[in-house]
Amino acid sequence: MYLCNMKQVKITAIRKADYRDLQSLYENPIEHVCDVEVGKEWVSREGERPEGLCPEAWKSMKEFVEELARGGGDFFDGWMKNPFSAMISCNDGFRPVSFLLEAMEGGE
Question: DSSP for 59-102?
Fold first, then answer.
């Protein structure tokens, strides 16, 4: 990955859903569930996964974070009010978490 002049990207957990009806119908009992708290923030440096961010959530946002870090944006032709941001959800269909990704100015 080209590292010169890359922006940092702030990742914020905005909302967390819990679909208990779907869990009872389709999910086998599990011991560990997502422990992300709404409001939790991470900063991606050089387009890399921040320590402590769920690897499965990272899979759903990785390409968006890398593009924002390179200075890109304007995904899907004006989808977001801020063209240097994206709203991405993790791939857990039972407990999805929505994350706001925002390019930070000046490598803050």
Answer: HHHHHHHHHHHTT---TTTT-SSSTTEEEEE-S-SSS-EEEEEE
The structure tokens 């569930």 sit at: 33
Q: Determine if the pTM surpasses 0.85.
A: yes
With pLDDT > 70 as the criterion, what percentage of the chain qualifies?
Answer: 94
Residue 60 in any domain: the answer is yes
Domain boundaries, position 31? 9-107
Distance CA 75, CA 68 (A): 10
Residue 37 falls within a domain, yes or no?
Answer: yes
- Side chain identity at 47, as an amino acid letter? G
- Whole-number pLDDT of residue 107: 52
The three-class DSSP label of residue 107 is helix
**Identity (one letter) of the amino acid at 73?**
G
pLDDT < 50: residue spans in the chain: 1-2, 108
- Can you name the residues that pair with 42 across neighbouring β-strands? 11
